[in-house]
Amino acid sequence: MFADLFAYFYQFADVFAFLVLSAAGLAVIFGMMGIINMAHGEFIMCGAYATTFAYHAGLPLPLAQACGVVAAGLIGIVLEATLIRPLYSRPLDSLLVTWGLGLIATQGTLIVLGSSMAGIGTPGGGFRLGGYGFSIYRMILFAAALCVLAFIYLLFKRTRFGIYARATMQNANMAQALGVRRNRIYALTFGIGAALAGLCGALYAPTMTLIPTMGATFIVEAFVTVVVGGANVLLGTAPAAVALAVTRTTLNGLYGQVFGQIGLLLAVVLIIRVLPEGFSGWLAKRAS
Amino acid sequence: MKRRSILTGAAALPLFSIVGRHSALGSDPIKIGLLEDISGDLAMMGLPKLHGSQLAVEEINGKGGVLGREIVLMHLDPQGDNARYQEFARRLLQRDKVDLLIGGITSASREAIRPIVDRSSVLYFYTNQYEGGVCDASMVSVGAVPEQQLSTLIPWMVERFGKRVYTVAADYNFGHLSAEWGRTILKPLNGEIVGEEFIPLGVSQFAQTIQNIQNAKPDWLYMLNVGAAQDSFFEQAAAAGLNLPMGSPIKIMLGFEHKRFPPPALNNMHAAANWFEELDTPAAVDFKKRWHAKFPNEPYINDMGYNAYVALYMFRMLAEGAKSIKRDEMRKVIDEGGACIDAPEGRICIDPKSQHTSHHMRLISVDAQHHVHIDKDFGVIQPYWLGQVGCDLTKRNDKEQYSPDHLPKAM
């Protein structure tokens, strides 16, 4: 009995972690800046590739993963300053630019680094409970997802940077008049979003096949979580991930992965129909 | 993803290229249309196919071409998109008027272009192993089929590991038909399918599947997962300590997972193969040397790449036998029997009834260090199944794909 309960929880945690980690970067960039980052999957790929490179170069895995996060974050900051910044008032154009960047990144990686890359084995071993075997690393992923949620909340609610960032997003000119360095805030926020995407790639790199198009496997989950969560990252992402993870886990367990996938997408349709502004819009309305 | 396909379509246009050099060979070159994915999710497998074709073209032109004419490849990259397969097949057949068409990776892409090929007068070579059953006079199948790969592998697995089998398959025609083959072959062996799961393409997370498998307690796994994303299964299963024997018609020699994943993720995987890079007969060693001289960075010469190479030599044999590159003339050579070539795996022939190819099959396995072992040599196996159930292309052209649950109607 306990083993079965734990098995369900483990499956839930696994899906939850996947949703949160794949969506976090996208949610920050969309929620804070209003930019729909179509190159999100490629930032994830970048994090995974940088991690793998650093690991094969001899770094221990956690350090290698830090390299993946930093690499994606730095690239994000540079791209924001050069390509994204002129497009803040042109959301459709920014969508097109990030889309193009994603295509260039995928194809460039294919040409420069080849069609696949030797992976890293999953660390941490496993444990047995009842008739089931579990991977410890998957539990680490769950913990990481909770940490990411806490990090986003604390960063934007409890730090000076967070106040500046939220002020800038609400009224950039006013914030600037009050002495906030607007461009720096934009660059850092985009960088943090990119770094969170890189973190997703870094964390999943040891569990997946490394190919240039690997980012695409995260995209559906990332977008549905952000859409269901709504515009406010701080409020929406966690409940959205819980709701979708419960739906998917239950259907996966009862009817298999095909129905899990169908159920996930149906749930999205239903939730958006009932809560057009996602969980965060609904929660904000209740609070006010 | 829709957004991807729209833009990559535009990006594909300049990729059109004619591979091959002008030479002193007489008259117009023979144009060979080639559809292989060298970008997208299947690039990893498509690239060795392109290389195999390029190597064969270079060698054949160096030996005087086909019927004294130079051969040139016209390669297009459909990027794993079936709509683009159709568009490019039409372009090659109707606008560029190629004399031969080769290519396609997934069974879905093959079935997408086969009706287009059927309306042309061009012969089409499909160079992958596949789930078998295509009875179509326009198509020559070069790869291995279930009677060569599964009727060998599955009984061996049952004998060695046991009768309880769990199937993990990709959710499209290849996965479903291969799963059906598994059920059909297991039945007379009193084997039992204790679980069967179809996974949508692109899914990369398998915690639930792994748990279902642990619940069902099978003796071994019948793996029909396809694509890089689904290959993540192995790493995740190893991390969860699943450690069951596995058998598959597409792992090791096709996806070279034992080279891509760190050991022991592919430990205890078994497959029946007509070609794998570890094969070390003198002919194979010589072939590998030529390949690596031309493509020093090739991570692995997989069976698809090998089949793509062999296909062009088959074409040369048929054309020289028929003294023509017309489909119907070349098919007469197949009809007469004896359409054989000496390939790196040994002597292989095209079967007149089904236009499928005989192969020298070996059972290979991967150990915990990811070394490949040959566990059994089956010798040459004919592609007998289609002929047995009533497909006879020397008499009529069914243009149909059959399976154990979908047999030809009795005449």
UniProtKB/TrEMBL annotation, chain A:
It holds the Pfam family BPD_transp_2. Keywords: Amino-acid transport, Cell membrane, Membrane, Transmembrane, Transmembrane helix, Transport. GO terms for biological process: amino acid transport. GO terms for cellular component: plasma membrane. Coiled coil: none annotated. Its main location: membrane. One of its GO terms (molecular function) is transmembrane transporter activity. It is a multi-pass membrane protein. InterPro entries: ABC_transp_permease (IPR001851), BCAA_transport_permease (IPR052157). It comes from the Bacteria. Belongs to the binding-protein-dependent transport system permease family. LivHM subfamily. PANTHER family: ABC TRANSPORTER PERMEASE PROTEIN (PTHR11795:SF447), BRANCHED-CHAIN AMINO ACID TRANSPORT SYSTEM PERMEASE PROTEIN LIVH (PTHR11795). This is Branched-chain amino acid ABC transporter permease. It comes from Rhodopila globiformis (Rhodopseudomonas globiformis). The lineage of its organism: Bacteria, Pseudomonadati, Pseudomonadota, Alphaproteobacteria, Acetobacterales.
From TrEMBL, chain B:
InterPro entries: Leu-bd, Leu_Ile_Val-bd, Peripla_BP_I, Urea_ABC_transptr_substrate-bd. One of its GO terms (biological process) is amino acid transport. Residues 29-368 form the Leucine-binding protein domain. Keywords: Amino-acid transport, Signal, Transport. It comes from the Bacteria. It holds the Pfam family Peripla_BP_6. Belongs to the leucine-binding protein family. NCBIfam families: urea_ABC_arch. This is Urea ABC transporter substrate-binding protein. The lineage of its organism: Bacteria, Pseudomonadati, Pseudomonadota, Alphaproteobacteria, Acetobacterales.
